[in-house]
Amino acid sequence: MKKYECVGSGLLTLDHLFILNEFPCSNRKYDVATVWQQPGGPVPVGLMTMHQLGVNSCLLSDPGSGTAREKIQSYWRQIGFSTEMIFDTNRNPVPEAFIWVGRKDGSRTVFSVNSGFGEPDLSDSELLAVCENTLWIYLDGRTEFQRRLKAAAISAGCRVFIDLGDRREQFSELVRGTEVVIGSADFAKRQFPGVPAEAVLTEMNRSGVTIAGLTLGDKGSVFYDGRKMVQVPALPVSVSDSTGAGDIFHGAFLAAFLRGFELEEAAQFATRTAAWSLKHPGHRLHELPRRFKNELLLNR
Question: Are 197 and 166 in contact (CB under 8 A)?
Fold first, then answer.
């Protein structure tokens, strides 16, 4: 029996959110309405979402040291998220993101400090051992370490999920043999300039992706499984802050898919979960309503 249902690797940050009554312009002073700190990064937020939905998930990382690491681990203790695969050899500072959010419409500007991925120094055989203890591997495909982890996953018979937030080099090689790939609208625009969403998904499928998806902001999402296109509209919601909403969508989609939801049902569930996250500053996964987890439990 596998120890985990999903293990992931990707950029981990400590996010500092500053909610402003008015979005800033140059040479002015502003009062901050709310300040919020949270663990961030596409894969970590997706994995924390899965954990909160009852999926046994774990992050593989060597995030760095200092106060930022302590704050991240404090949040993980609060929600009971596993730190079994968190290493402690990286003495560089944990990457941090400073995010300015306009309260009126959720407009954002992000500043990153101490950029780095904090990946453990593991051999191919050690990565294979990680993969032999999980059903799924969750990646954002940005580093050579993750490409090695994907190769180990394929060798171990794991299913692979990749979150594509932007253009990736050697795209076809990266996604080949992957079960699920979900890209953002920015990814589609930069990887396939001028190509309509349906054609992007068809090309992703031809590249070896079993289920290809795109998130399109307020236009919803669209998926293709090699047989049919599935379009799911966004839900009408008053946006407070979109930070992490796409990552929550990805984690919720994979959690639902793992629990046996059909493609359209999984996309609809992810849409509802992400819509909840848009209503308040920060992802606040510790406050994720129990009804979402119960919905997955009823489908088991």
Answer: no
**Alpha-carbon separation of residue 144 from 28, 40, 112, 189, 246 (angstroms):** 43, 21, 21, 24, 24
Its pTM stands at 0.95
Q: How confident is the model at residue 108 (pLDDT cuts 50, 70, 90)?
A: confident
| pLDDT exceeds cutoff 90 at 102 | no
Pick from 178, 171, 228, 172: nearest CA to 198: 228
Residue in 194, 11, 25, 185 with CA at minimum distance from that of residue 95: 11
Backbone CA torsion sign across 199, 201, 204, 210: negative
Instruction: Read off the pLDDT band of 107 (50, 70, 90).
Output: confident
Q: Where are the alpha helices (DSSP H) in 111-262?
A: 124-131, 144-156, 171-175, 185-191, 197-206, 245-258
Provide the pairing of β-strand 221-224 with 211-215.
Answer: antiparallel
Strand ranges (E), the chain: 4-9, 13-20, 32-40, 57-59, 96-102, 108-113, 134-139, 159-164, 180-184, 211-215, 221-224, 229-232
CA distance 158 to 299: 23
Q: Could you give all domains of the chain from N- to C-terminal order, each with its CATH number?
A: 4-13+40-94+116-299 (3.40.1190.20)
Cβ pair 277, 239 in contact under 8 A: no
